[in-house]
Input
Amino acid sequence: MTDNDTTRRRFLQATGGAATAVALAGCSGGGDDEGQDDTDTLTPEEETERTTREQEQTDKTYRRHNSTMTTLDPIASTDEASGIVIINLFDALTNYPNGETTTENLLAESMEVSDDVTEVTINLRDDITYNHDDYGDVTAGDVAYSFERLAQSDNSRRASFILDFLGVAHETEGEEDTYVPGSLDIEASDEKTVEMTLESPFHAIPEMIAYTSFSIIPEGIVGDIEGYDGDMSYEQFTQETPVGAGPFSLETWNSGSECEVSARPIDEYHGEGPYVSGVHWMIAEEDNALYTYTVLNENADVPYIPNSQYDANKVSIEGKDSMGRKYGTYGPLENDKTVPYYQVEEVGVYYFAFNQANTEPAVRKAFAHAMNQQQMIDEVLNGPGTTASHITPPAIYPGGKEAYLDHEGDYPYGLDETRIGKATEIMEDAGYSSDDPYELELTIYESELFAEIANILRDQLASAHVDVQIQQTQFSTMLSRGRKGNLDAYSLGWIMDYPAPDNFLQLLNPPQTDTSLDAPISYVDWDPDESEAAQKATDAWEKIQSNPAPEEGQDARNEGYVSMEEANWEDVVFLPLLHNVAENMHYSWVEKPRAGAAGRSRQKKNVVYVGERD
Amino acid sequence: MSRWSYFAKRLVLSIPVILFGTTVTFIAIRMGPIDPVSAVFGTQANPDDMERMRRQLGLNQPLWQQYFDFLWDMVTFDLGQSWVVETNTDTIELIKSRAPRTVWMGFWAILIPLFIGIPLGFYAGLNPNTAGDYFASFGGIVWRAMPNFWLAVILLVGLSRSEDILFGFSWKTFLVDTPQVIGTKYFHTAWTNLQAGQIQPMEWARATKQILPAAVVLGSASMGNEMRISRTAMLETKHSNYVEMAKAKGVSGRSLVWKHMFRNALIPLVPVITGEAGLLLGGSVLVETVMAINGIGKLFFDALTEGDMPVAGALMFIFILLLVFINIMQDFLYTIIDPRVGYEGE
Output
C-alpha cells in the first residue's frame, strides 16, 4: 500500500461518496521491514521543514490526482475527494496547519471563551478577503450566515456538527426535534466580532470549527436558508463560483474528468503563499490509470504507487523528524526516479466489532486471543502500521503515546500473539467441540486487507471450534445491515473528526449502540442491563459528558476514556487491529512541509512550491 | 398494415417496456440492500444527520408512495437531482457533462470495426481458403478472444512506454504531441471550444489520438464479430443462385460484387451493428475506468452501487428510450437495404 490518501481513495472507488473513508488495502506476501527496525533509535532531526519561503509566486501548476468529487459546497460535502478541493477554496476560522493535530487561528484573530465555556467571542482578522472581486472583506455577518446555513440548510449534511457536537444554543420544534430556522444563538456584534452561546460547555471548540463544514462564505450568497434570496443559484455556487476566503479560486471543475483551481495573488491572500500558480487534479480512480498517469507518463507531481507495484524494500529510511515522522526515499520507480518519502502515524483506528446480542462472550474472547495484530501488519498490510491495543489512537490517548504503551501491558488477550490454545480452551469451556463448532458470520466490506485478515482468522479459529463464515458485501450494504442489527461481526475503521478521544469512544457509548434506534452510531447492541462492562462504559461516558470544561474537566475525562477502553476489553465489543501509518511521497521538484497526523488531505496547497521539473 | 401504422404500433408497445424497465430499476435500488444515505455518510455518520437526509429525500415515506412519485417524475421528465454521486446536482446536467466523452469513445469504437472488420470479412469471404482468408479469420478470432481489461492495460502501459518496447517509436509524440496518454483532456478542450463556436483541428486530432486506444479496446470484440459474420454472409451470397446467374450472363466482377452481392450480404450485419449502439449509450464501465474516461458507463455503475436513485433511474429511462428508438430504426433500415422486406403482408 502507498499513502493513506490513495488507499482511502481505493475504498472510495468501491463505495462512492462515502465519508472520510476507512479502508486499508493490503498485499499478500510478507513485508520485509529491513531498514526500518532500527529507526526507533534515530535521533530527531533539527526542525528544518517549516522555514518561511520568500513570498514569490511561480508560474507552475501543482499537478495531482483525485477521485470523483461530489460537491464543492462545504456544508454538503462528506467525502474526502471534495474536501481536498474545498479546503483550498475556503478558509475556516481555525485550521490544522499542514494537517497537524493542533489548530491555529486562520480567519480568527483571537477567540475568547468565558469561564464556564459557554460564551465564545471570536474576533476576525482585518486583512481577510474573498477570492472573488464582488465580495470584499470577510465580516462577522458572514460567519453568522455560514454557521446558520450549516444548521438550517436542506443541503447541509453536517448539521449535527454545530447543533450537537459544538452545541450552539438553538430551539427545536415538533416530535422530531427539528431545528427552528434562525434560532441559533450566534450574533455579529460588530463588523469583526462574533458572539455565540453554547448549550453546554464543549472542550474542543477550535478543533471542531476547523472542519471544512465550518468554512466561511459571504453572507447571502446562496438562498437555501430563510431570509436570503441568494446572489446566485445553488448550482452556480457549488459548481462554478464557490466564493470563499481560501488561497485559491475555482478555474474549472469538469465532472469526473478534472478540476483546476488558480492561485490568488500572493499579496492578496492573508496567509503564506500560494507559491504555485494553481493546482490541477486529474480525476481517475483505477490503479493502472493512476500509475500510468503519475509514474509512467509523469503527468503529475506526485507518484501513485498501487499495491501491485509497491515494494517495501524500496523504502529507505534516513531519519526521524521532530514530530516523529520517519523520512527517507522511495525508489527507484519504473521511471528511474527516486522520490522523497515519509511516514505519518495518522489519527485513526481499524477494528473488528461484535454485536453483543448476536454473539457469545466466549467466541468474542476466543477471537481476541487468536488475533495477532503484528502478524496482520507484517503479512497482510505489507507496509508500515502500528499495532492497536486501544480504540483511541496513541497521538490523542490520555497521557500520550507513553501512557498508551504503558496501559497496553494490561491488554488481556495477548497483544501481537496468536493464542490458539487459549482460544480453544475458552470455547471448550463454553461447551463447543470440533463436532459442534460455534458458527459466526463475519461481514467485511470490499477491502483486500480485511479480506485477507478474515481468512487468516477463519483458518486459525477453525481449530478452536469456531466456524467463521466470511461475507463480503458492498460497504453501504454492510452499514445498513448493521443498523438493523443483522450483523454478528464486522470490520470497520474510524478516522478523527477532531483530535480528542471522545470522537472515537462515542462509538462505544452503550445507549447509542442500540440497533433498535433509527440510526445507532455503531451496531453492537451493547446493553447496560445485560453486561456490567456496558454499565461501566455508560457511566464513564456520562462522566466524560459532565466534565466538558477544556482544562478543569480534563482529568475526569481522561479517567472516563480509560475506563471505557477497559470496559471494551472486558466484553470485546471492538477488537482493535491497527492504527494506520500513511506513506507520503512526491517528486523531488516539489517542496512542501510534511503533512501531520490529521492527514495530508487537510493540508492547504498554498504551502506547496514546485521547482524546475526534471 | 402500412409502414407507418407498424411504427405507431411499435411505439405504443414500447410503453410497457419502459414501465417495466423503470420498475425493475426502482425495485433493484430501493428494495435491495443498498442504502444511499449510508453511501453518503460512510462510517463517520451521525444518526441525526442521516435522519435529516432521509427526511429531505423522502426516504421515510412508504415505499409505494416513493414508487409512484418516482414513476411520475420519470414520465414528466422531471429527472431530479443526484443524491450521492454528485450531491444536489441536476441529473440532466450531470448526464450532459459526462455523456459527450462516452459518445466520442463509442463513435470511434463503432467506426473502427465498421471500417476494418467488415472490409476484411468481405475480403476473406470473396477469397475463401486463401492465405489472406486464413490470416484475416485467425486474426479475427484472436482479436475477438482478447479480454477488454487485459487489452486495455496492455495498451495503456505499452503506449506509455513505447520508446522502450517499440524500438524507439514514441506514441506520445507520434503525429501530434499528446503527453497525456489516457483521459479525455484534449477532447474536453476541443469540445468546449466547439460549443463556443471555434473549430480547432489540432485539438480534434489530439482528442482522436487520445481516445483511439480506448475505442480500439472497446471495439475489439465487435470488430472480430463483424469480420466473422461478414465473411460468412459474403460466402453465402457468393454461392447463391442469382450470383451464378449473373455471372453466367457475363456481369463484370466489380459490378457483381458491389451491385449484387454487397447489399445482400449487409442484411445479417444490420442487427449486429445496431446492437453495438449499446456501446454509445453505456460505453463500458471497464474501459472507462481503466482509461480514466469516467463517462456514462462509470456514472451508471456508481449510481447503481451507491443507490443514487435519480441518476440511475434517469439513465435507465434514457437508455430504454434510446434502445427502443434504435430498434425501430433497425427495422426501418431493413426496408431500405432490402425492398422485399415489408409490413403489408399480415
Notes: Chain B has two domains: 1-84+310-346, 93-306.
